[in-house]
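Can you give me the bound-state structure? Components:
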Amino acid sequence: MTEHVAHEPAHASPEHDSHAEHGAHHGHDNSPEAIRKEIRKYLVVLGALAILTLITVGISYIHLPTAQAVALALVVATIKGSLVAAFFMHLITERKLIYAVLLFTVFFFGMLLWGPWHQRNNAEKVWKGYDLNASQPAPKTPTETHGSGH
Amino acid sequence: MDGHAHAAHSHEIEIPYTVHARPDTGVYNGKLGIWLFLASEVMLFGALFSTLILLRTSSPNWPHGYNVLMVPWATANTFVLIGSSVTVVLGWAYLRLGNLKKGKFYLSLTLLAGFIFMGIKAYEYYTKFEHHLGPWTNNFYGTYFVLTGLHGLHVLGGMIVFAYLLLTADKWYAEKRDQFTNRVEVTGLYWHFVDLVWIFLFPTIYLL
Amino acid sequence: MPPQRQVRVGTQWMRARDAQRALEEAIRVSEEESRAHGPHESFLRKYVFSVDHKWIGIQYGITALTFLLLGFSMMLLMRYQLAWPGQPFHPFIAKLLGAANAPGGVMLPEFYNQLGAMHGTVMVFLAIVPLAVGAFGNYLVPLQIGAPDMAFPKLNMMSYWLYLPGGLIMLASFFLPGGAANNGWTSYPPLSIIGTGQTAWLIGMVFLITSSLLGSVNFIVTIFQLRAKGLTFMRLPFFVWAQLVTSFLLLLAFPPLEAAAVLQLMDRVAGTSFFLPSGLVVSGTPLQVAGGGNPLLWQHLFWFLAHPEVYVLILPAMGIISEIIANNTRKPLWGYKSLVGAAGFLGFMSFVVWAHHMFLTGMGTAISAFFQTTTMIISIPSVIILTALIISLWGGSIRFTVPMLFALAFLPMFGIGGLTGLPLGLAAADIHLHDTYYVIGHFHYVVAPGTIFAMFAGIYYWFPKVTGRNMNEFWGKVHFWASFICINGVFFPMFIQGLAGVSRRLYDGGSQYIHAKPVLHWNVFISMAAFGLLASQVPFIINFFYSIFRGRRVGSNLWDATTLEWAATTSPPLGHGNFAVTPVVYRGPYEYSVPGHVGDDFIPQHVPDEPQNDVPVPAGGGMLAAGAVAQKES
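Here's the bound-state model for the whole set.
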């Protein structure tokens, strides 16, 4: 009875080692053909990223109105980012668990951007003269100092 | 090794699923770990982008990045970083194909790209400091230096890991090939994330 | 104890008991063998830079308890000043504080502010969280899920060794010129940027945040990846669930504060003005910075962490309480699924309530309405958890052990803390109550008689697990009753003072304010109660150290618990590796008093339903049956 337990540890590892020889279970296809195909895919993505980089730099030389410039730059950046995430980080074939983690993260990320920005935007509308962030030089005399933001 | 007895007192205890995926979650420990870490990084840079958006939209005279920063050099840096992302996945792919030599070659290229990126970055900083422009100048430069600076620290961290992987590649590849390949994959995931951050930093800071 | 507790030969209960004994014998033999032949770890590896989660848990525990005492002492100094403003300290204490902080034994206002900021910081970031997560989580999670260690042992070690320097930097800042941070634990700019002492605070915070990031990654991976065979998510002890949700909060809420800390550090050392608006004048002199920053941005980023942080403080406490209640009522937790669901929902919602700390910043009605709504919603899961725990008591044959007493006290205390939070969550009421002693009373009821009582409950409950010895029951009860009375004496009058409008940050306790006059006399009462609370901890401290060496030796599973950390390993557990035999799990975590079973009134998680054959199977030795267990994910 006692010996049963005491000797259990002895034959623990061989099973594991034999398992290791069979290549990794990454959730990736590790056959040489599949990997070669992957490599070609990476090079295509590289090409796409290069072209998109040139496009985004090109747009910046047109000096569009701010709203459009921001929108365009973010669209291009999002496409580029998605390419990197989907193919280089192989998110496209990733497990549900990872998606779940990222989904929450993206939501909280959104909240983080929305909170401060909304408050400022709202305050500007509701509190006339709210100008906490006006980049004016510091006043020379102490008497004119209150006002901004109070 | 799950469900099997193991020696409780061996010096190096064996942690399950360090190399192979756990069947029900489908991932190995390192991969889940790095994705969680990246999730936290998303929140870190999220706060920084939130700062950038708030300060920029609040300011009546925020300069256009293309007027004050060196767009050509930054564009070059974008290519360098995108290229380095490809070399990482290529290195990983060749390691899985069993080609250590090519794998190491591409990892070295990645490290080299890191050096080039940091070199260009240093040159950019230098030209600013030379004109006595620093984070203290105004909030444009403040966000520029802090955001690119923290991003640069991330690049530096990745370079240190790649250097370590390259130095120990032969030993690891001979002894624990799968684990080594995993390490390259995980480091690669981090490196792509750093690239991804730059993909957003580049237009928001330099091009708008 | 229930009457049906005799062991009957021929039932599986006999087998479980036998198995336990056999396991212990086997472990003893293997320990002796390893002592004789095994490799010897160096002192540094074993005790200082250990990678064993149990030792790291103990390191966290001892460090955090020390910080807890330190933070408590800071509060006592403040309470003395508040009760008897301007009265000199005892010469010994005056000498200890130094002439720079307390000339002639009378505390300076600047020093009072330092104590205030550091009390909050030390208690939240250096005492409670490291105790709840670093100590209890580290020690228990791998044991409860049947894992040999955390998923990344070295990362675990690193996480402790970032926490300790972070804490020491914080403490050392008292000795720097200008003293420690003195801007409240919330460090609101612009005061925090133009004031003294904040730089060390920020550097310390960067260490602490990095430490808890590493820790949280480790916990999540461990819980997802290293659960024993058969331990599906819905079979996890609630404590593990609580730790899982907590880790997600730490993982995703802390980075924004790290970013904010870096930005504030830049404001202080690099001359940036992220949080400094234009036109700031300090002591009559315009501040020479670029300006254009936004102080409210700091508040957003800070509370984006600090609200989830509140749930980081309370969730592990709820986990501990659940374990203790199930064990001491000898029946399953009522509504396990609702508990799990509520904990998850609580975690999620905690990310979208942060701006209820900022109603008075004038952020506008729309955003206030949003955050009021979410704040009211988040009270629902808290109520579900509390209700489930209270209903769990119903019909149980309760064992009034020391841990159970603390657990029982936790329920109404947390209830008071939670309910008094509702008026604060409504903007209209908050206008009156904001920054008064009412707020102090509210969150201290949650954290002190709430979380800290849960920590005490946990210490009394798992002490035998860690040391193999039990703490003294009588002195435990003395500790409990004295603490329970005193702690209510400290915090309840604060509601009265707060409702009268007394501000929380007054160096003289409010004696300059007419409106504070009718409630001022409570200051002396509160301070007396606080000193009583200090005295109440003496039996605990003595009991704790005495019991480590001289406590009554107890069996491996003295509470007759079902979860793996008690049932499938010895107390104290094996060295690195935890389990002589990796357990396989066959059932849920709280199978107490299962109807129709004879013998013991509990079925450990790793005991199979049907015996494999006539020979008793070693506990956890159901490897033969391992294949039969469906790997069903919830």
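A couple of observations. Residues 300 and 355 of chain C are 7 Å apart (CA to CA). Chain C is about 60% helix and 0% strand.
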